[in-house]
Amino acid sequence: MSQDEIEKNRERFDHVTDTDIRYDSGKGLSEDVVRKISEEKDEPDWMLEKRLEALRHFQRRPMPGWGPDLSELDVSDITHFKAAEGEQSDSWEEVPEEIQETFDKLGIPEAEKEALSGVGAQYESEVVYQNMKEEWEEKGVIFCDMDQAVQEHEDLVKEYFMNRCVPPHDNKFSALHGAVWSGGSFVYVPEGVEVEIPVQAYFRMNSKGMGQFEHTLIIAEENSKVHYIEGCSAPQYTRSNLHAGCVEVFVGEDAHVQYSTVQNWSNNTYNLNTKRAKVKQDGVMEWVSGSMGSKVTMLYPSSHLNGEGARANHITIAYAGDGQDIDTGAKVLHNAPNTKSTIESKSITQGEGRTNYRGLVRVPEGSHGSKISVECDALMFSEDATSDTEPYIEIQEDDVEMAHEATVGRIGDEEIHYMQSRGIEEEEAKEMIVRGFIEPITKELPLEYAVELNRLIELEMEGSLG
Amino acid sequence: MMEKLRQDASELIEDLEMPETIKTPGRRWTRFPEDLEKETPKEETTPEIQTDGETEVYMGEEALEAAGEKAFDLIKKDENRLNAIHASSVTSLIYVEASGDSELDIDYATERSASTHLIIDVRPGSNLQVTERTDCGEFNTSFTEIYVGENASVDYGAVENPSGFSYSRRKAIVHRYGSINWLNGIFSGDLNRTRIDTVLKGDGSETEMTGVWYPTGEQHHDLSLQVRHIGDNTKCDMDSRSVVDDKARSLYEGLQKVERSATDTSSFQDQETLMLSQDAESDASPKLMIENPDVEASHAAAAGSVEKQKQHYLESRGLTSEEAEKLVVKGFFEPVMEQIRVPRVKSSIREKVREKLQETQV
To answer: Which of A66, A362, A398 shows the shortest C-beta gap to B280?
Structure first.
């Protein structure tokens, strides 16, 4: 790829569009700001109460005393809520032109043309574009903007929202999220319903110094099946941006939920998320995450296996380029007998980047027959990179099988030389090796996401090598 | 000098924190008792020392003088509160200079509480085999500082058998082409925390770090093995095995740190736990911190119950459940026993394992 092409490609992912801002809560966070957000959204009182409770937790809690350096993150300097001009719309034509341009560059319309079933695209903090197949509606599947769900499915939201899975007081950033959350997706799949085509939402933040706090709530009732996909891409800015999303998943008995995400935040974003699933008897939760970009990422999807025979599979890929600290991992609580988890973590480090696998697996007393497999592999491309692995394993039961393995290394010169002898350029050889390395994740993703992930990694590698 | 050491250290105690322990959401792996400084030993320990070959042994005041800056240099008095408590209550201080081929065997056999400190300077090109045995009282601290010279090699073995609280801290710095082979066995003590560090400073230096522990009853044994690769072309092999029974807890933390300066490193870590009781607990955290890509590093950890392996013996040999379990436990330690180069230690570890198996027999 020539330098021009690289620049062009970068532009595809790092761009800013001038858009009129309809509502801006201003900088800083106070009770007043939180009340304004709730009022603007015309929320019921219980939601306002929840926001205020979260705000109190946030103000009381210290910053985490572990993990990556967050000292440059100034939470008081981040704007919490922005809505782009334009009302909710059901058809593409009604979406404002600039927003269309943004999505065009990301390939959303193509996905639409290919008749992907549900596309909820989030521009800034509100969903401006939603579509869903009629047949799902007939089956009782709900896929809508989270704000809309508060209005239209209040009982369900009240029961599940930051209540039984991730309470606001869970951690500093879930508290912040609870106070100022806006947008995101609500997915409800009734008993026995299988949603065959992945449900997708595209997230994007686009305004200077702005935080994004979308909330995703997925409820899969007994014996249902759904695959939810979320992708992110943010433009480059010089100011610190904060993303503190929250994902809550409820997997019913015998239900199957896959949550896949490819994230590519701009290199000044603090990406601090809380993602958790509660899994009932014989239910299956699959987390597939690709974390790229950002200045700091802290992301540890967690699975609480609460019913006998429940399973969780975690697949994560982290890519850290120069100046990036990607701290990702997994947390699995085996709270019931005969539960099973597999964790597969891959990381690639370039320049002065750092990746870390941070994982916790806990088997309390009584969870006999539990099986755990953890595998971490790291590739380092640079002399200045850092690659850490920090697993924590707690087992209070004898009838378990636990195996953990980790390896760290560089791409072997022999491999490169072999490929060069076959007429492949060094750069290309490296890319091929990386593609093979990340295959476990790409094969879990629909084609267009797999292609994008490969392209993003190529772009990052070209950028730092060229 | 000894009095000054104790005095200086006791002044540090109040301002220092207890040693770091792993914290996970809602849990702290090891909790140290409060007011430990009140339990410290008051009387001198008189260790039995046997030597063979060219070793100079200094004790007490003389040892502190001869060791000079080597005393409390690898392991600092002010590293944490327990280190300061140890230094303030040292009951035995030994300094050894080893050259040529030599052996050193120290037995702290005493019923009383003891705080023992051993410093060894292993001269370039020499080979030393060293063992430390503790059978102490309610409070025990055991510190070992080893300086491994160029081309020198050390085989170290410790068998820890305290009864109450025990804290061990061992550390070696290894110069060019030097090597140290650590073996640490823990078999008793209500609360035992042992941390061993190797600093591979010189090019071509190597270490093997082996831990064996077997908590039973309500014992809590916490082992931490850490290596720092600094020189080029250094090697580390960590291999640890624990058996945990009754309501006991086995804790393990391993850290392989490869610093920016270290090229062509190989570093391996393996830890396995065999769980004999459903009330037992095994916690493990094998960590890697890699700052240089020119490395081959891996770690593995595994835990499982005795049941599966037992079945094999039950079915194929017609043994009783108890006999089969004993065979599994003995067999479980064998792969690491093979790495032990000090025969004395090997036989005493086998003996301790037998004793443990008898203890738990109902």
So the answer is: A398
